[in-house]
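yo, Aminopeptidase is done. seq:
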Amino acid sequence: MLARSGDGVNPREANTSSTDLLKSSETVSLSHDTPFLMPHSALILAGFADKNASLFRRFQVPLGDPAAWVDIHGHTIALVRDLEMDRVRQKSHADHVTCPAEHIPPLGLSADRETATAQATVQLLRSKKIETVITDRSLPFLFAWHLQQAEIEVRYDEELGVLDRRTKSDQEIEALAKAQSVTEEVMLIVLRRIAGAKADAEGRLSVDGEVLTSEGLQSFAAMQFLQRGFSMGHGAIIATVPQVADCHHSGSGAIYTRHPVVVDLFPRDESSRYNGDCTRTIVHGQASQTVEAMHAAVVEAKLAAESKLVAGNLASDVHKASEETLKQHGYPTSRGTITDAPSIQHGTGHGIGLDVHEPILLDEGGGEMLEGEVFTVEPGLYGRTDGGVRVEDMLVVTEGEPRTLNRLPFGLDWS
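structure:
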């Protein structure tokens, strides 16, 4: 799934259990920065672990109730709802697991669970004589407000929850490889369903008398993933002319022969919570010369980008290699404006892991890439008249040639 610079990701910046994934990570509980080493300071993350990947990575339980993770110079404390304490003790590597009822302030705890968790967190910090906390971009304002009311200084570390998640462990890469393998399995089923369809006199495709639509194919893919223990919480993109001219349009309406269809699937493996992300483009019947030329240029741009996907290189150089290749084929850049003729509308890729879109972006301003980072590489071209073409794989950064986690070919014909 493509990410653009405004999509909430900072451009600067296997069947494996979740517990095993955390055991192999080397920097989960420590910030990279020196303020963490100050006397009377602590690191804090808070919120809902079922929505916050950095919290989940520490708790190893997708908690649907508010919780806080406190790290005081390497001593970690998990503050969770009382009925979750045993589960967190079993799954996480917290040194101590506690609950709000064990940290009641003088005026008592609120009946509101989230407020009570924030109050108890402050009381815990006060008992440890903490004067300063360092936190990440996701700290709920409710927690920040209660910390400020207690005159505990709140400092922001822009790399916390980013840098420690960028480099993936072997077990995390194994989880991503499994997610991508299942994504490709369902991708192939969807592509063959389109390829094997029959076209009526108007060119509409159908299978067993049922007209194929973007919405119907998305539901079909969701069922396939559900049967494999995956979810499509972010939906899917199965789009054709003219909606695909907007590269983020999920697609709607009937699928027609001879028109390119962009199929972008990005499900989550519910057993590990790591994501797959794969895109292929299919044409039922004979593709036009224009679409064949677009496809050839996109594949060439993808290979050019991957040649720069090396530890120590800049992520911006990966994007530049892709964009320059497409420009050499005569395609203009048109970011933010939909065009009739094919154009370049987005960056080249993004980090991926517990979130589909993770820093850093393979785009303008992208910083130095690290060994063990995992990225999608997904150049594309889009226009109202001829449709769109995108091809996307997932790759692991090494000191040499990147390791691809994909096996599917790139072609337009899937019959």
